[in-house]
Design brief:
Helix content is 37%, strand content 19%. The protein contains 10 helices and 10 strands. The strands form 3 sheets. A 6-stranded mixed β-sheet has the order 4-3-5-10-6-9, with helices on both faces. Helix 1 crosses helix 4.
Length: 322
């Protein structure tokens, strides 16, 4: 006979949803204003009652089990429907359009795979997404939220940091076949190079390669040659096709490395001093729809950082003008 649900089941499910969103007991506790220990205890009680583990406790992160994924698929839309109904009853329905401007590569690689979660959680919010390069100016009134890669300074706007960025070279394993070894930066002379000509706002065409090599102490390597593209994700596709060695952004490249389609010939990564930020006008978050999308983006970014775990020590970028 299946035991009846405990009276605290809704509390435990709410804690489960927070942990599943952040993949962190600590972040879930911060969201719910309870201690990490209380979060852990509620998850343990829920798992004991279900008779199944919902999370795998890995050394630096949590991971949903199959049972956890099944529970999340059932509970998340149900609670989203409850939140929507309550919002309507309180006169603050989360429905209507939110205009988002974002970088094309960030949209294609990072945001699009996550958008189904936003749709399930807030089905009445309709996004209008415009992809624009960093070379286009941010103009007030043209968007509700914008995602950009820069140093975090946006005069006339407010911003929230989403993700810090690191860069490092990558290439297809096929590119290395029948060529001289690629073990040091000096070996790049034997390989074609691929460039993102709009790496960040105001960057010169060869900025990523030059910044990387200067930071690791190899500024003498000539990089002003090869193929140029104005989209990072297109540059990565050309690297996968074996066209040359490209500079990857850690935020935008995970599956390619995990699958072996790309390899990193040099272990050292470099912090660029640039970060992905979500930008908005003063007062924009007073609109509950805009605030909801903003907070969802921040939560997804935190969850992505936790899932990736701490990266190896990265070399700081050279100071501007060095």
């Amino acid at each position: 006979m299946t035991p009846s649900a405990p009276s605290q089941i809704h509390t435990r499910l709410r804690v489960f949803l927070a942990v599943a969103r952040h993949l962190s007991f600590t972040r879930a506790g911060e969201e719910l204003s309870i201690t990490t220990g209380a979060v852990s205890q509620q998850i343990k009680l829920l798992e004991d009652w279900l008779g199944q583990r919902l999370f795998r406790r890995l050394p630096r992160r949590l991971e949903l089990t199959d049972a956890g994924n099944r529970l999340l698929a059932a509970v998340d839309p149900a609670y989203a429907a409850v939140e929507l109904a309550i919002g309507r009853l309180r006169g603050g329905a989360l429905s209507g359009v939110v205009r988002v401007r974002t970088l094309p590569s960030f949209l294609a690689t990072w945001l699009v795979p996550r958008l189904p979660r936003l749709m399930r959680r807030f089905p009445q919010i309709e996004l209008q997404v415009v992809a624009e390069d960093s070379t286009y100016s941010l103009r007030d009134g043209e968007f509700d939220l914008a995602i950009d890669l820069n140093d975090g300074t946006y005069p006339g706007f407010q911003s929230t940091v989403l993700l810090e960025e690191e860069i490092f070279p990558v290439c297809s394993p096929r590119l290395l076949e029948g060529r001289p070894p690629l073990q040091t930066p000096d070996d790049l002379v034997h390989y074609p190079l691929l460039h993102d000509m709009t790496a960040w706002r105001g960057s010169p065409p060869y900025a990523e390669w030059e910044r990387y090599l200067k930071a690791i102490g190899a500024p003498q390597v000539e990089v002003r040659r090869g193929y140029m593209f104005n989209r990072n994700h297109i540059t990565m596709q050309c690297a996968i096709a074996g066209m040359g060695v490209a500079i990857a952004r850690r935020t935008l490249i995970t599956d390619e490395l995990d699958s072996g389609r790309l390899v990193a010939p040099f272990a050292q990564s470099v912090r660029t001093g640039k970060r992905y930020c979500v930008i908005h006008s003063a007062g924009a978050l007073a609109d509950p729809r805009v605030a909801t999308v903003h907070d969802w983006l921040v939560a997804e970014a935190h969850a992505a950082e936790l899932a990736a775990g701490p990266s190896a020590d990265a070399t700081p970028a050279p100071a501007p003008g060095d």
